[in-house]
Amino acid sequence: KHLTTDAKAGKSRGKWLALDKTFVAVYRDAPDGPLAPKALYYRGWVHEELAFRSFLEKDAQASLDLYQRMIDRYPRHEWADDAYVRRAVVLRDRLKDNARATAELRAVLKRYPDGDKTAEAVEMLRALDPSFVPEAPKAEAGRPAQFSGAPEASGGAGTPASTANLATASNPALLSEISKTGGDDYSRITLNLDRETTYRYQLLDQAPGESAAPRRLYIDLDNARLGSRVRSDEKIADGILRQIRAAYNKPTVARVVLDIDNLDHYNVFTLDSPFRVVLDVYAKPKPGKRSPGDAAKADDAPKDQPQAQADPKAKDKYDGWLANLFRRKEKTPAASGRDASEAMREETAQAAREVAARQAAKPAAPTKESPAAPAYKPPPGSEKRIGDLVEQLGLTVRTIMIDAGHGGKDPGAQGLNTLVEKDVNLRFAKILGKKLEDHGFEVLYTRTRDVFIPLEERTAMANAKKADLFVSIHCNAHGDPKSSGLEIYSLNLASTEDAVRVAARENAVSAKTISDLQLILTDLMLNTKMKESRDLAKTVQDKAIGSISGRWKTRDRGTHEAPFYVLMGARMPAVLVEMGYITNPNDAKRLASDKYLEALAQGMVNGVVAYKQRIERFTGEAAPKAGKKNSAS
């Protein structure tokens, strides 16, 4: 029966899940084969249809997760832009989250400007935001200056979130320092300025005949001057960057050029207080490996770039209705609501009927007269293949980076009883790290002493060390001393005034800046492990509250989302823990107690172990055995 048109059949959750299992089988049969991206896409669609019927948030979240997995693993596939649009529909219609829906649609326009979903994305954006105006193609005369003979590849421009202190020709910004943090597959370059300014950036391909030359990414800083600590030519040669150059492009324009030997994709964004322009450069994954959490930029490579080798056996195996289904590419213009899946429904009718027929044709349950079939044994080598896939997708937890918030010249919040946030954070970070080491995890620290580390360098350190989790430790504060409790944040647009307040305090900026910041974060956050971070936050929050609630009456403030600088650009699940209010008498007393911190740390460790076990449930791996691990800072 047709699940999408037969009301009675459509109400059967079992039939939908049976269809889902069919797509699971296709994906597991050849996760690197040509049908795998489409199998993941259709799994997302199945759960989207379930959410439409069940009204359950878990079905909507499952749909979002599956569409995102398809995008992350196959970003250049011709259906990736479809997956973005479907995510936007689910967010808008099922979860009523217009801010995140807008982010997904903007990603379609940025990453797939020539795709067949651009018009639909524009239509949906206009409905969500009547003031939205699509960016017009840049005129030739308006393009940033280029090096002679180098064809344009990709670029953009930026204006700071706040323009109150914007640099001018008579009062230019000072580029005081260019700092670099990174590893063998990732580099973060930060341009430190003393005030806001506008900027433009451009990625240049090699000119004809210069195949051995590096690619060049330059950024022009308007109304800026070079400080004495900025070198005109700094050799790097780390396998990603060859060198960083700085000079004047025009009398009032400072240009910084990155010569890049190995480039997969890059991000450019700004931070405030002080103003910084941050460039994240990602190297191409080594053969057989993927960088966890990365979604390669579609505008850096053709959409038809092959990602998987065709499997002739797979073609024979799925030569019927399934092959026809997988050959489709949704080109029918669809309305931006429920009608968007009508074309898909028509072409999945045969799939649903086939599944129903297979279900009906299954042998009866085993009886005394008909013994049960022998237990299923996976084909030889499949366990290793699944294990390799889990490893490639970053679905494991071995290394955890703990970030003790604030430090050095940045004391954080001033609390009661002479408590200073930076000291409490560091003491707890060491307690938590020791307990994680006792459970067999490798623990790294952003700091192990009272030193200042810029926010943008903290996640860069985690990326460079290839940490599997990033946990930033903080204490909350409020003008009302009655405010209390434990809460954990992950990265997203802030949806409440309280989340804006907390993010503004931790980012050391104003609430108005946070509001402006959200407008420029949408594309950046699409590359982060947002769902995994939410899951980690909830698991750790639940276990932590369970660990301390028996002895201390602590308010459970739950989990929230907000745009924290310290979480931006993280390539692994990342959370920010607010242990309690240092300005509340009861919370401050507990935060000064090692017994309380020990219990809280144990609860968080329980949460990390539970999270690890959940994501590794398909691999048969257990939590790591207790043992001494090395720490780094």
Supply the helix-strand structural class.
Answer: alpha/beta
Q: CATH topology of the largest domain, which one?
A: Aminopeptidase
Assigned CATH superfamily of the largest domain: Zn-dependent exopeptidases
Q: Find the count of extended strands (DSSP E, 2+ residues).
A: 18
Which term fits the overall shape?
globular
Radius of gyration: 26 Å
Tell me about the largest β-sheet: 7 strands, mixed
**Helical content, roughly?**
25-40%
Distance between the termini: 60 Å
Number of helices: 18
Calculate the mean pLDDT score and round it: 77
Indicate the proportion of strand residues. Answer: 15-25%
Q: How many domains, in number, for the residues?
A: 3
Arrangement of strands in the largest sheet = 16-15-17-14-12-13-18
So, CATH architecture of the largest domain?
3-Layer(aba) Sandwich
Please give the CATH class of the largest domain. Answer: Alpha Beta
- Poorly predicted sequence stretches spanning 5 or more consecutive residues: 137-153, 290-316, 329-356, 362-394, 627-632
Q: Brief description of this entry?
A:
This protein has 633 residues and is of the alpha/beta class. The protein has helices at 7-10, 13-29, 36-54, 57-73, 80-94, 98-111, 118-128, 312-317, 321-327, 342-361, 382-392, 421-438, 455-464, 497-507, 511-525, 530-548, 585-591, 594-615; strands at 152-158, 173-182, 186-193, 199-204, 215-222, 224-226, 233-235, 241-250, 253-260, 265-271, 276-282, 399-404, 442-445, 469-476, 486-491, 556-562, 574-581, 631-632. It contains 18 helices and 18 strands.
